[in-house]
Amino acid sequence: EVHLEESGGDLAQPGGSLRLSCAASGFTFSDYAMSWVRQTPGTGLEWVSTISGGGDDASYADSVKGRFTVSRDNSNNTLFLQMNSLRAEDAAIYYCATPDKVFVHWGQGIPVTVSS
Amino acid sequence: EIVLTQSPGTLSVSPGERATLSCRASQSISSSFLGWYQQKPGQAPRLLIYGGSSRAAGIPARFSGSGSGTDFTLTISRVEPEDFAVYYCQTYAISRTFGQGTKVEIK
What we know:
The structure holds two protein chains of two kinds. Chain A is an all-beta fold. Chain A has no helices and eleven strands. Chain B has no helices and ten strands. The interface between A and B is medium-sized, with 18 and 20 residues.
């Protein structure tokens, strides 16, 4: 059974950084693209980023491009999202999901708060 | 960027009734790139439909997707008590974009 579990969510100050992790199990991790999707009451669901199975290709929403970096460790079945220069509007519940276009499997989500 | 507009915002139905949810795209997209999700409070979204009309694994047959061009529909043939939730459409034609959601509530 596929299981995705996010961690690393916390309170960050505007301009600060956070690193989210997503531990995956139940499938051959390196065979699948992985994605981050976030959700806020105001803006709803928003795709954030996707990384290919091999980790050599990544794409980002315009709203986070240049500030967020997605990466993966296929030897440890873990997905990461490095979030820099955080803004108030980045506050959301962040989900890791797979694969890349339609999201079949989701983690339970982790809250990120951005406030001074 | 393709914008998806869902209607109505809230749909009030009684158990056993038919529910019809609409998703309109700002430009024509292939139905192959349209999906639907269900989300209950405190839970992650759950994929219901992909490719416009294909049910995801384990999804009951009362859920069906249809449409083409700019107009797409999710139909719940007979609403069960567990179907009261928020439903989102999503396209992956150019980028991944979600609609704003339709809440299906008990009438």
